[in-house]
């Protein structure tokens, strides 16, 4: 046991991201649930207080222009863009992930030509986070399509002239499996269909490469590895080459070419702004903007984060193997780096109770029915010492 | 002039809401733009700080249950309910007004039977705030309907067996005209169509009576007379008797009967919760919850607010008539109380420049193209002395 404690000490001493931890508010709890709700960045309380007291309280309505409220969705979209490999002008922040899945999928069907062009099928990852499937069913119903659930690995064979759109998760929320975005995107494009990627569990944890892999549309949340806060706004990516044909099912006034023209006829704005809908939620949006500041540190990059993420999850698996009796838990997350997100899922029959005891013992992960212990690893603020301790407490808890 | 100053003093001395002003953060500016963005309630900064520092920063993921985050949309919906004459359990807070208009209108067409039942027309107020019309066009396109724009007064004659849904504004955003919700709702119901009311400019300013007048669906924002803050979440009302047939076009996981069951099949929750979509935006939502506390004061009621609102707008019109040379501005807002919301719109050719000078002189209203000076009156924090001063400065500004 002391070997692993010593190893953790060495890994922490060599960790190029170790200093970033001070930018977050943390305590003695080992917080392995940043893939559900990221920890509080230390600069956010002050930023939010300024938004509330000065921008709203003193400037009031003037802040829509003077405090940059009106342009926040596209400005913050441009802060998210480099984290997912997108050039500026293609991402807009706002609404929930579910609402953005609806915009993206209906938009994708329309871009494909849809049922009028013989494309009447939407392929959806069968193991997706449920909301994507529910919204896909609604998008299909409202565009004259049907939904076909399948495993991501089955997508290439299922693609055909009837495929309108394909909705996939970059990282599976339950297993932590990282899907092959480049190959799947290429296959979707070759079939003449439109790709929609859900980046909730990958953005901020690993390189995505939206532009370089030719992704058509993408959505993601900002409260997991981007630490935007509870229910912070999601985002929508529309590839630059598709923007002038992107036809949103939610053409609110914020997406109008001239929003304050108050014209009865709708005319869509150019660019990412076309993905906006209604009045942006400023408090949450500007909290997110502050939370993203950490990415402008010279020592922080997506590559550095990915390297540490793999080191953390490797080390956790190593510690679990050393501390937990063989057979007590089954590792669900793939061991191959190319197939692993930034989480480790362990299965055991009594996972619900185990997670309760683990949380009581100061190690916070979460339980996903029916049998998964889910541990998220946020490289910006986790240490190897914490990872070793989490595995040790887990072993004690498993008894 | 001194007569009106003296009158203002007397009106303020007798104002039963005068003490409520201390619950808001105000300064020497006369703020007549609360119908666009309400002023900051004094208790909100502390409430938001607690949400950020303690609930998010210390409790982190535990706050979804321990701080009541998960149930906030329906809990805060029940705080909005009495302000619009709704019993509990019919309103859910979340998403933007535009997104809620989409849910409500698609839901309304489906409730009417839609094109399959020969109901393929959506009637929409032609002078509506533009987003309602844009979203109505999308809802119509996606449900096989057409949109027919018309004046609210023309609705009764236009209703017929082909009418699926009718989307109307309770108060016109530009003119401040209050439409006859009881009579129009009754006519819509008699025609077998479904009513959808937009309450953005009436909720918190005057009695709405959703339940007593038999309104089917309604939406509204919370950042105007409800003072929820910039982009605070909107709400959706679905009459109790329609909830089990309400079929949302945005069936996100938050509206599932068992959201954490993570089931691939969608099964809608009962009640107002069915109108939820994705993860609620907690910072803005809990700021709104704090902002609504003022309505629990024993001296605050919708009736008291309405009485003062009419007194404020009457007095403003009287001061304008006394101070501004006849013919310089035209009063757009109806003089009859039954037709007036909580704003006064004055038209003049140079309205854009006039409003700029007025704001520079410390009286904040807003300009709506092409020729409207718009002044909103929030009875919770405005004094008659401010109203007199606003009219006086306006007269100076108009030159």
Distance between the termini of chain A: 16 Å
Order of helices and strands of chain A: HEHHHEHEHEHEHEEEHHEEHEEEH
Tell how many strands the DSSP assignment of chain A holds.
13
User: Over the alpha carbons, how many angstroms does the gyration radius of chain A reach?
Assistant: 22 Å
Count every helix of chain A, treating DSSP H or I runs of 4 or more residues as helices: 12
Overall morphology of chain A: globular
- What oligomeric assembly is this protein in? homodimer
**Beta-strand percentage of chain A?**
5-15%
- Share of residues in helices of chain A: 25-40%
Strand order of the largest sheet of chain A: 2-8-7-6-5-3-4
CATH class of the largest domain in chain A: Alpha Beta
Describe this structure in words.
The structure is a homodimer of 399-residue chains. With 399 residues, chain A is of the alpha/beta class. The first copy, chain A, has two domains: 2-41 and 299-398, Aspartate Aminotransferase, domain 1; 47-296, Aspartate Aminotransferase, domain 2 (3-Layer(aba) Sandwich), CATH 3.40.640.10. Chain A has twelve helices and 13 strands. A seven-stranded mixed β-sheet of chain A has the order 2-8-7-6-5-3-4, with helices on both faces. A four-stranded antiparallel β-sheet of chain A has the order 9-10-13-12, covered by helices on one side. In chain A, strands 1-11 form a two-stranded parallel ribbon. In chain A, α4 packs parallel to α9 (282-291) and α10 packs parallel to α12 (384-398). Chain A starts with a helix and ends with a helix. The model of chain A has no long low-confidence stretch (mean pLDDT 97).
